[in-house]
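Before the break, one more example. Copy the sequence into your notebook; we will annotate it together after we see the structure.
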Amino acid sequence: MEETGSRTVSLADVARLAGVSKMTVSNVINNREGMTEQTRQRVQQAIEQSGYVANAAARVLAGGRMNLLGVIAPRINWPYVTELLHGASRVVEQAGLDLAIFTTSDNVRVERERAMLLRTLVDGVLLIIPAADEQTVFGPAVPVVTVGSAGAYTVSVDDRQGGRLAAQHLLDLGHRHIGHVSGLSSVSRHDASDRLDGFAQELNAAGVGLPPHLIADGAFTEAGGEAAARTLLSLPERPTAIFAANDRSAIGVLRAAEQLGLRVPHDLSVVGYDDVQVASLTRPALTTIRQPLEEMGAAAARLLIALIRREVPEQAHPRFPASLVVRDSTAPPGVVQPPDPVRPMKGAT
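Here is what the structure looks like once it is written out:
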């Protein structure tokens, strides 16, 4: 928010003046694609009329606060990201602050330049699944809270516990030849390795084990999960169950099974991770490990606001438990299904 005389101007004020949403105002300010020229002009006129940009610059030069929090995420349309943001936005709005969302770039130079710009625009930064160097580029002057990676201040789930829960569920169903679609190729994904560690530890404790040939990387994407599943399901002795490191790659596993003529869960049981909303809409509905994403987003926002206000946070590393959500994609190996088997939903994102 910015001061104009005795009045405070926020993104919401600009949005009302332009007759658009706060997200649209943010998209125009950040020069994102997808906006019509008419919309851009309306927002620009509202910005100029309200004095939002001019007063934002004046506030920075005066060393004051912007009352603006920046979010950096790989993609805003990923269900994992949107559910985190939903929880964070409620806390930010209740605190009378604004939220600006920026997506990451594969170009290191562009990414660093963007981070340097953010240092002058926002009071603090929430990093969702950040690359390693993003955590250090802001410097001590800008409070930073991370989700999905390590950091001085971070919000996480107990991923080792989540991996153990997935293994326990499949072992309890009677599976003994189990594969894993990992996310290990993603940059700085400590959560991926923790999930694998917990999963493997539980299988080893049961005397089942997880040999290297039963692990294939899915890069946390649907296409990656599909390719990894094809590799695992093409083995001479294919696994009877697969645990995927997130729900998006688990959906890819479901698609690969369908294309190979395998019925889920009769021929193959599948477990995902995250419990994003689409997990309950796949066919069959996906058994998964739940992360309380909205609660985690809210906790990250509260932690960041406390740091900005120079308050002592209750916890520097809030950690949430994982939990098992059993749906229709898992069953004992060889369980007979109805004659018209359900199929994975196509087009899930």
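The radius of gyration is 23 Å. Residues 1-6, 59-63, 336-349 have pLDDT under 50 and may be disordered. Try to locate both features in your own notes.
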